[in-house]
Amino acid sequence: MTNLPENTPYAVEMQDIVIRFPGVLANDHVNFTLRKGEIHALLGENGAGKSTLMNVLSGMYQPESGTIRINGEPVSFRSPKGAIASGIGMVHQHFMLVPTLTVTENILLGLNEPKFIMKLATYDKKIQKLQETFGLKVDPTAKIWQLSVGEQQRVEILKTLYRGAEILILDEPTAVLAPQEIDELMETMRTLVSQGKSIIFISHKLNEVQAVADRLTVLRKGKATAEGIDPQGLTRTQLAELMVGRKVIFQVEKVEREPGEVVLEVENLSTTNNRGLPAVRNVSFQIQEGEIFGIAGIAGNGQSELVEAVTGLRPIEGSVRINGTEVGNCSPQKSIRCGLAHIPEDRTGMGTAPNLSITKNIIMKNYAQDPISNGWRIDYLAAHDHAAELKEVYDIQAPTVETMARKLSGGNLQKLILAREISGDPKLIVAMQPTRGLDVGAIEGIQRLLLEQRQKGAAILLISEELEELLMLSDRIAVIFDGELVGEMAASQADLNQIGMMMTGALRSDG
Amino acid sequence: MKFPYKIKFESRTNDVPKWLPLATSLGAVVVAFIISGIVLWLIGGNPFQVYRYFFTASFGSWGAFSDILVKATPLILIGLGCSVAFKMNILNIGAEGQFYIGAFFASMVVLVPIIPLDSPKWLVLTLMALMGILGGALYGFIPGFLKAVFNVNEIITTLMLNYIAIFWNNYWIFGKYSDAGFQMTPTFDKVAWLPRLADLAKDYPFFSGITLHLGVVFGLVAAVLIWVILKRSRWGYEIALIGDNPKAANYAGINIKKNIILVMMLSGALAGLAGMSEVTGVVHRLQERISTNYGFSGVIVAWLAKLNPFAVIPVAILFGALIVAGREIQPSGLSFMIQGTILFLVISSDVFLRYKVRIVRTHQEEMA
Q1: Looking at the structure, do residues A418 and A466 belong to the same domain, yes or no?
Q2: Closest chain B residue to the Cα of A407, Cα to Cα
Q3: Which end of chain A is less packed: N or C, by CB atoms within 10 Å?
């Protein structure tokens, strides 16, 4: 919070912006202003028009009508170049960095200077100086692949600053960060505005917005439902209502349920990561029918490898049994036949085939079963009906079931995956980050679906970085640190502080 | 004063209408002929005359048309084989080698001979076809196995295996089965000749001199078969899933290694059958250069047909026509130029499938 006086001049004034895409009004007379030295948060569900509005500001789209003023001067950008020249810099959610080049090389990429000889040492110093001004610590000579996600983000911010950005657009910068990294980012944002920069901060989370933003604008279906209001004093329910247009109940109803037979038994499981280094060390746990077992931890502590080991996608040492059948080191197909449903972390990279239709994505797990298949052929009429039914039941928003999966939004893609995995009445569900990057409405729906499956008697392994979600859904929680389970407790007795310390390796309680 | 209109590319948000891919491909072929016409005109030729000659040389008579179909036959089979492999993102550019090995295996039936040459014709030809398929499949197995087990890049192995196949063939036609020292085997016994329409000339004089042989039927049957596999079968679904996202396919429990080997074998089998059809239907002996780059033209045919088995047939016929007309015309590079222009334009015409192109008025404020 910087508490700017009311009369601070505007860095950005956008008035009555209208953008029309075929069939939708992406921005419907939207107003947006940003004062100099201000952090202005922009919120909205996926598809509410946030990115469109920011693409207008960064020169990617030209509005049908409306005016933009930068520092009081009317502008009309015809390309991103014009916007950069006016001091607007966008830090995208997905980093645009070359992993094999150094930080300095990445920052210089695409610029006119240096011309032929790189003179890297000189530029390393220049960038070092820039870092010191803004408190963005990262080694200029390090290669991108050696950096953590948080450091890579700093490189992206440095890139825009080096190009002379005065107005920074941060597109959901916290979505990819671990909790401490988020704190560091907030600190950086405060430093930047104290140095006279202005920031547009796109986020889904009220606590982050309240922590740093001076003002708040909310978009819903292309219209602003709140314009430049003060975020302090706003409750989460009020904010969710502004974003979704209806009341959202954050506490999903969880019914007490006595766990049944053991479904998943993991014994002394160890496995390595893609570079051949140990990633999961001697992990053992059990999950019973109707029980959700949550695993907390900071990304990169072996969660992905653990999930792949349990779902049969990665070779292991030790044993994984589903309902008594050994599935470790067998084919993924065997695990599926034993009743495994897997909601993968990477929705586009693993969970779906982007250029195939919704139908073909929905039948991915049961294409070889009656009634979709009889013998060697696939009955595409039956497949179509099956897909249409699931599209209806799970409310997947798309023109038809023949639409390609890559045209779906993140939330709808996740609904497709859930529809496919859950409709097979699984015995065991392994869900990794099932709500990451989704908006509040979609998150609620997905959490409810998981609880429904628990009620039906499925055993659920839930891996998430959202502690709150874990505490709300799980029956038992364990913490993973450096490939080991360092503590296990009943969710009802879990203590946030204690879990936080276990996540960073400061505490362990083997029990 | 600025030009008041500009061209705008908009990403398509809706699904592409069904007729559009066909329309853009046809449009691209027409534009390719126009561009080639301009080039012809610039070098001092009369494009209309050239095209008229082109047309009569290829479609002008039944005899010429049958020649086109004869040239199109191996292109159909190889184009189908490439389509299957490309659908799974396996870039098999070894059809040339698989074609030669297929021809070699088929020829062995009569050269060794594997069965007595007084066996019935249908038996000899069926065995030759099976041998051709087997040869091509085995030759496709090698890069498939290397890719599946050792992750060896199939582009390199299939390309290199082409040369091995050609020299393998040369060894046998020079060294073992040479016809009086020439680079060819003796002509096969008539029992190993695929039936031709010309064989019917005694009863139907209309067919005299028509060289069209039974191989074209292999091509048509194969097209139906591949269509059924790709569009209606479980295997075809697995191929499409692996081709689009192998990680998703693995996650869905599909055995990718097995499929790589099987698809390479199917792809090779079709090229091998093309080789058999060529030696038994056209040249009637094993010799050098039985393929005029069919293996590589087949790659282009598959792409132009957008990997659609039925579209492979007309595209192969178009290429057959270009080959036939190319023989008749000087400079002979002309038909290659047209082939190249067509390929270039058809591939770039994809932009119309991904974007909507609109001509819009530039904004008022920008004009000021």
Answers
A1: yes
A2: B13
A3: C
